[in-house]
From TrEMBL:
Transmembrane segments: none
InterPro entries: DNA_pol3_alpha_NTPase_dom, DNA_pol3_alpha_thumb_dom, DNA_pol3_finger, DnaE2/DnaE/PolC, DNAPol_HHH, NA-bd_OB_tRNA, PHP_dom, Pol/His_phosphatase_N
UniProt GO molecular function: 3'-5' exonuclease activity; DNA-directed DNA polymerase activity; nucleic acid binding
GO cellular component: cytoplasm
Domain Polymerase/histidinol phosphatase N-terminal: 6-73
Reactions catalysed: DNA(n) + a 2'-deoxyribonucleoside 5'-triphosphate = DNA(n+1) + diphosphate
Presence of keyword Transferase: yes
Main location: cytoplasm
Keywords associated with the record: DNA replication, DNA-directed DNA polymerase, Nucleotidyltransferase, Transferase
Name of the protein in its database record: DNA polymerase III subunit alpha
Length: 1168
């Protein structure tokens, strides 16, 4: 029997784009190879140690926690581009929990103090935190090995003795590696000699970067993705052998048979390493309560004060609910948590920072409501506390808070100041290689033509959670490509191999952790864009008992805040937005009209259309609307609207469902309703009902089989005590109970959290209320909030026109930094003009307080010299800011530089005391004599003035180049730029999809030619319609036939297909481009009618039972005729209507109908 061996040098997928040892596969392989321990030593970081630990425990393999750190040539604080560019490596392993804490400190300071290209540590840090750590001298990049390769044996020996002294005898090892490299043979020989001379022990490792020998191919491609190279590049980063895999003990013993002690020492080290994580301990910060109170007493006092404030009459039911929640909060140890949240929200509100009404499941808590953490009454809206905090599922509470986005940072600063900067950190998040992204990344790395890669990537359905395996199962066309095209199969196989791996680390947009002690007492720290974050993500922080919160910046809150300020200034009305009436018919009329641009959650094209159909009459309708308008639940919308309009037709499977489903017209809409059903019909406890809801949502089949039995027949313990009554005991027939359970399973995967939807609905109503009663102030605030987004401003300006609100040009005597109100008009803000900063704006406002500007020269003289710069002034001239001073833009552009230079010179002379005779009498000399008189030149043509406005503000104010074509555009366009952009937005348009044929007219504002590999010309166009820009790609075949129209300022009709990619703006791939003329519009009108009709049609198929063979034949037929028409399949035996994935939507013709009728029967195909 061979010696025991343990791998102590291993890089997981968290050595980003370098390690290809997936933690999820590692321990199975370790077990197969007969090893009982293994270490993780990722480069410079500890991102993966918790996943590694948990997976190891699952397999009964000892997880050894470590890191391969980078060492600085000098001090970690030295960052010279020449002296400090080369870094060494060292492997550190934690012997126990104290060693783990020291490892955390070292790795954290590598980022927070030593970062220079990589996170670097130095020997001072090692000296300070060496206790209970084992150190290995690492690979060829180790400091000792480098000295050996530099023929500096004595230097290597000196350093080895230094490290041995730092870590103590028996805790430092000289590391031998053999991957078949010549340099390693030289180094190993000298390391063995060094060991003999110093007594420092040897250890054998393999520098594991992938799991099996065959994985070197995938690893090589991963390196190409990391470096942006292709496998054909000769000068790329590449490992020099294919031996960097997880070798068996026998392979390692054979390699190091001449030094058996190096193998034995791996087990000796493994035996010394015993780190254990405690996932049952919380490290919540303590809140300092006023003297004379315990935290429990203080929380209770605040809640009862809030109860009296929130409710006119405090009933026994309210007290009972409050006491119940407080008892759970106390029992679970979260009293300080609630006090901390109450405190920083109180700080925000006391300091005029607008806070959202709530977010997520905390809306279900009356404690949160009485503490002013939320503004949604959980009693009125029947929200459930256990959805937020469940005593039967011990997890950290999750309160996410929205603040006005411009002042969110102030709240975080308050928390940092109160608890200490060392106890507060932001949270890391990892971007992973999603299905389409993995295909594109690998395609680039293997140098496959873009068009081929793009074609394959697009066969992966564009939806959340999609994987390549799922796509192959769902899409027969992709499966066919995979089976018939060898090169495509290679691409897809490699993409599957890297799919889901972390690609990069960044800072979570909102997450903040607050710890009891310094954060790096518990978790390692990372540095990203000068922000200190944790190295563990939110989920892991919660598992480790740390308090995490989301401090979210919400633009819509800033809109509300600015609108309220404008209303007070211009109408003299002070509004408390949290106390407006929520039953105002006029507000619901506005929402029902679909005129909800700018209204939170209700402004997308599809949502506006839905609101017109839904015609909400109360907040409950808006809550339901927000919950339903998502992929999945959208299928229930027709039934919901039908039931709402015809309440007499609503039926319930059992009378006990009526009180639960009445509020949603007999439809299951919310997760909370699932909880109520199992509780009221099945007799579940509050806490267990939440567990069932979670199991259904996550499709945990094993759990659901058991729960179905309990729901129907109940559960009795070994003593005969009834734990769950079950439906049958409650008088509900078994078959009815079964059907109800089936309905819940079908729905639960799409069900929405009502508490969250209620919070959103409150904000939707508040913004709709402001738009309804104060449209001018609301629209001004709204446009200010999107000042950097010219497309949005153009859309809102168009909305203003529909409301009869005039938009005034920016003006030197009237404009401020933001959009402002002038009577019933909105004045453009100066900050929206390119190159115009807050400094010159403040100077303008200050000068204007004395008196208004009378001329351009008057303006130049009175503005502070440091703020008067040519770029800003030129931009303001082009934007028409000076038009009201009886001067045209052509005149000013001819002389503004000369005037500014003259004024600067005069002011410098005044400062230097060089007063000329001219200067002495300057006050009595007219401005026209000081500087050249403005030239007598004509104003630019109107189209140039519009171009200037577009250049400086991103939009047209004085008109639009397409205004005269508006009627033609409306006749022929099947989509506009706003609808196109919305396709990538949450809650955006579901009407269009990738590959849809569309027609969009507009003006070409930019053209960029490109030569293809085949030496043909293609073009990238930016085409602008009435709402904003769209990118259009014109491939060579289309380019050649449309060349005469492809120039800037050309007004055209683009006919093409939507091109949708993750993390990119949607584009149009042009099939044809025509001039926008009456004749061409006339020719296209029939096509437009067809395209628009296609969207509204549906194809219905019927099967008697779930016949998988027939379903596969149907899929095959549908996949050959992809188009816009949704397909539904009704299974008669199960009374179920299934909606086909968008990849199976079709274009209908006689042939496809004929084929489908052959499969399902003559009467089982309908087009509606």
């Amino acid at each position: 029997m061979g010696k025991k061996f343990v791998h102590l040098h291993l890089h997981s997928e968290y050595s980003l784009l370098d390690g290809y040892t997936r933690i999820s596969n590692l321990f199975k392989r370790v077990k197969e190879l007969g090893m009982d321990s293994v270490a993780i030593t990722d480069h410079g970081s500890m991102f993966g140690v918790i996943d590694f630990y948990k997976e190891g425990k699952k397999y009964g393999i000892k997880p050894i926690i470590g890191c391969e750190v980078y060492t600085a040539p000098r001090s970690r604080f030295d960052k010279d581009s020449i002296k400090d560019k080369n870094m060494g490596h060292l492997v550190l392993l934690a012997k126990n929990n104290k060693g783990y804490k020291n490892l955390i400190k070292i790795v954290s300071k590598g980022y927070t103090e030593g970062f220079y290209y990589k996170p670097r540590i130095d020997y001072e840090l090692l000296q300070e935190y060496s206790d209970d750590l084992i150190c290995l001298s690492a690979c060829l990049a180790g400091d000792i090995q480098r000295r050996i390769l530099d023929n500096n044996f004595e230097g290597a020996k000196k350093l080895a003795l230094k490290l041995n002294n730092i870590f103590g005898q028996g805790n430092f090892y000289l590391e031998l590696q053999d991957h078949g490299l010549e340099e390693q043979k030289i180094v190993n020989k000298e390391l063995i000699r060094l060991s003999k001379e110093t007594g420092i022990p040897l250890v054998a490792t393999n520098d594991v970067h992938y799991l099996t020998y065959e994985d070197y191919k995938v690893h090589d491609i991963l390196l190409c993705i990391q470096t942006g190279k292709t496998i054909e590049d000769k000068d790329r980063m590449k490992f020099e052998s294919n031996e960097f895999y997880l070798k068996s003990p026998q392979e390692m013993e054979k390699l190091f048979s001449h030094v058996p002690e190096a193998i034995e020492n791996t087990q000796k080290i493994a035996d010394m390493c015993n780190v254990e994580f405690d996932f049952n301990q919380m490290h919540l910060p303590k809140y300092d309560v006023p003297s004379g109170y315990t935290p429990n007493e203080y929380l209770r006092k605040l809640c009862y004060e809030g109860l009296k404030r929130r409710y006119k009459k405090v009933t026994e039911n309210l007290k009972e609910r409050l006491e119940y929640e407080l008892s759970i909060i106390e029992q679970m140890g979260y009293v300080d948590y609630f006090l901390i949240v109450w405190d920083f929200i109180k700080y925000a509100k006391d300091n005029g920072i607008l806070v959202g009404p709530g977010r997520g499941s905390c809306g279900g808590s009356i404690v949160a409501y009485t503490l002013n953490i939320t503004d949604i009454d959980p009693i009125k809206y029947n929200l459930i506390f256990e959805r937020f905090l469940n005593p039967e599922r011990v997890t950290m509470p999750d309160i996410d808070i929205d603040f006005e986005d411009e002042r969110r940072g102030e709240v975080i600063d308050y928390v940092i100041k109160k608890y200490g900067s060392e106890k507060v950190a932001q949270i890391i998040t990892f971007g992973t290689m999603a299905a389409r992204g993995a295909i594109r990344d690998v395609g680039r790395a293997i140098n496959m033509p873009y068009s081929e890669v793009d074609k394959i990537a697009k066969e992966v359905p564009f939806q959340l959670g999609m994987t390549i395996d799922k796509a192959l199962e769902m899409n027969p066309k992709l499966k066919s490509i995979y089976n018939t095209d060898e090169r495509a199969r290679y691409l897809i196989d490699i993409a599957r191999a890297v799919e889901g791996m972390p690609r990069h680390a960044s800072t979570h947009a909102a997450g903040v952790v607050i710890a009891k002690e310094a954060v790096d007492e518990y978790v390692p720290l990372y540095l990203h864009d000068n922000n200190i974050t944790t190295q563990f993500n939110m989920t892991l922080l919660e598992e480790l008992g740390l308090l995490k919160m989301d401090f979210l910046g919400l633009r819509n809150l800033t809109v509300i805040k600015d609108a309220l300020k404008l209303i007070k200034e211009h109408k003299g009305v002070e509004i408390d937005i949290s106390n407006i009436p929520y039953d105002d018919p006029k507000v619901y009329e506005l929402i029902s009209s679909g005129e909800t641009l700018g209204v939170f959650q209700l402004e997308s094209t599809g949502m506006r259309r839905f609101m017109r159909e839904l015609k909400p009459q109360c907040l409950e309708d808006i809550i339901a609307g927000i919950s339903l308008y998502r992929p999945g639940p959208m299928e229930s919308i027709p039934k919901y609207i039908e039931n709402k309009n015809n309440p007499e037709k609503i039926t319930y499977l059992h009378p006990k469902l009526e009180p639960i489903l009445k509020v949603t017209y007999g439809c299951l809409v919310y997760q909370e309703q699932v909880m109520q059903v199992v509780r009221e019909l099945g007799g579940y406890s509050y806490g267990r009902s939440d567990l069932v809801r979670r199991a259904m949502g996550k499709k945990k089949m094993d759990v659901m089989v058991k729960e179905r039995e309990y729901f129907i027949n109940g559960k009795v313990d070994e003593n005969g005590n009834i734990e769950i009554r079950g439906c049958v005991r409650n008088g509900i027939p078994k078959d009815v109970a079964n059907t109800i359970f089936d309905d819940m399973i079908d729905f639960a995967k799409y069900a929405f959290n009502k508490s969250h939807a209620a919070s959103y609905a409150v904000l939707a109503y508040q913004t709709a209320y402001l738009k309804c009663y104060y449209p001018v102030e609301f629209m001004a605030a709204l446009m200010t909030s999107v000042m950097g987004n010219s497309s949005k401003i153009a859309q809102y300006i168009d909305d203003c026109k529909r409301q009869g609100i005039e938009i005034l040009k920016p003006d030197i005597n009237e404009s401020f930094d933001k959009f402002t109100v002038s009577g019933n008009k909105i004045r453009f803000g100066l900050l929206a003009i390119k190159n115009v900063g807050i400094g010159i704006i403040n100077s303008i406002i200050k000068a204007r307080r004395e008196k208004k500007f009378t001329s351009f020269i008057d303006f130049c003289e009175r503005i502070e010299t440091k703020e008067l710069n040519k770029r800003a002034v030129e931009s303001m001239i082009k934007a028409g800011v000076f038009d009201s001073l009886n001067v045209n833009r052509a005149q000013l552009l001819a002389v503004y530089e000369k005037i500014i230079e003259g004024i600067h010179q005069d002011k410098r002379k005044n400062i230097e005391g060089q007063m000329s005779l001219f200067n002495t009498f300057s006050d009595n000399i007219p401005n026209s004599m000081k500087y050249d008189v403005l030239p007598n030149v004509k104003e630019f043509p109107h189209k140039y003035l519009l171009a200037f406005e577009k250049e400086m503000m991103g939009i047209y104010i004085s008109g639009h180049p397409l205004s005269e074509y508006e009627e033609l555009i409306n006749k022929v366009a099947t989509i506009n730029s706003n609808e196109l952009r919305e396709m990538n937005d949450e809650g955006g348009s579901h009407e269009f999809k990738d590959g849809d044929k569309v027609i969009i007219p507009g003006i070409i504002i930019k053209k960029q030619d490109k030569v293809t590999k085949n030496n043909n010309l293609m073009a990238f166009l930016t085409v602008e319609d009435l709402y904003g820009p769209v990118e259009v790609i014109v491939f060579p075949t289309v380019y050649d036939k449309t060349l005469e129209y492809l120039h800037e300022d050309s007004i055209v009709i683009v006919i093409g297909k939507i091109n949708l990619k993750e993390d990119e703006e949607p584009k149009i791939l042009a099939d044809n481009i025509l001039p926008l003329t009456k004749e061409n519009v006339k020719k296209l009108i029939n096509v437009v009618k067809y395209e628009k009709r296609e969207v509204s049609r549906k194809l219905f198929l019927k099967l008697k039972y779930m016949d998988l063979k027939k379903i596969n034949i149907i899929k095959s037929i549908l996949s050959k005729k992809r188009g816009n028409i949704p397909v539904y399949l009704y299974i008669e035996s199960e009374k179920k209507k299934l909606k086909a994935d968008k990849s199976l939507w079709v274009n209908i013709d006689e042939e496809i109908i004929k084929q489908l009728k052959k499969v399902v029967g003559e009467d089982s195909v309908k087009i509606c």
